[in-house]
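The instructor's notes for this session suggest beginning with a concrete chain rather than abstract definitions. Hand out the sequence below and ask the class to guess, before any prediction is shown, which regions might be ordered.
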Amino acid sequence: MRPRAIACEMATPLLVHFVAGSSGPWRVDRVNCVVGEALASAERLAIHESPQSVAYGESTWVLRGVTSNTRYTNRPEVKTLVSKQAGLSRPEATRAALIPIRKTPAWWDLAQDERRAIFEEQSRHIGIGLEYLPAVARRLHHSRELGEPFDFITWFEYAPEHEGAFEAMLERLRQTPEWRYVDREVDIRLTQD
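After discussion, reveal the predicted structure:
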C-alpha cells in the first residue's frame, strides 16, 4: 500500500507500519547510518496504514509512527505548506527516502517555545523544506509516544530528476543548529519497481 496524500491538519491520527523484509512494493537500495545505531539492511519495504496494529509476517525490522497535527508551525506556515506541497503516491515519484530520527534528551528537556525557536527561527527547517516543494513530497510520523526507538519517521517521495534537490535539502537541514540535537538518524533509500 502506498502512503496517502499529505494533509497538514489531520482529523484522525493514522498508525503506519514500515515493514522491512523480503516483500513489499519498494526496493531498498541502501541503508545508511548517519549517526547512532544502524538498522539492518533489507531487500524490500512495505507500508501498512491502519488505525490499529496490524499483523505482518517475518520482517527484518518494523518502525511504527502515527500521523498527527502539525507541530512547531504557526498559521501562516501551515497555509503556505498546504498550498505548496504535493501529495504522496504521484506516478512519477518512484524514489523515496525513509528517515527515522531520534532527538537527544536535551531536546526534550526544552520547553515547546524553545524547541520552536531552534526548529524554525534558528534552523529554518520549514523555510528550507518549502524551497523544495512540490518536487519533494513528505509525511511526518510521530513515534516517541509509541515507545519506538525513534522520535520521528519522515517518508519522502520524489521523481528521479529531483534526487539532486532532495540531497541538497538534506545537506542543508543536517547543517542547522537543530541537528545538534539528533543522536540517531538512519537514511533509507528506496525505488518503486
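Then share the key points. The first strand starts at residue 15 and ends at 21. The longest helix spans residues 163-174.
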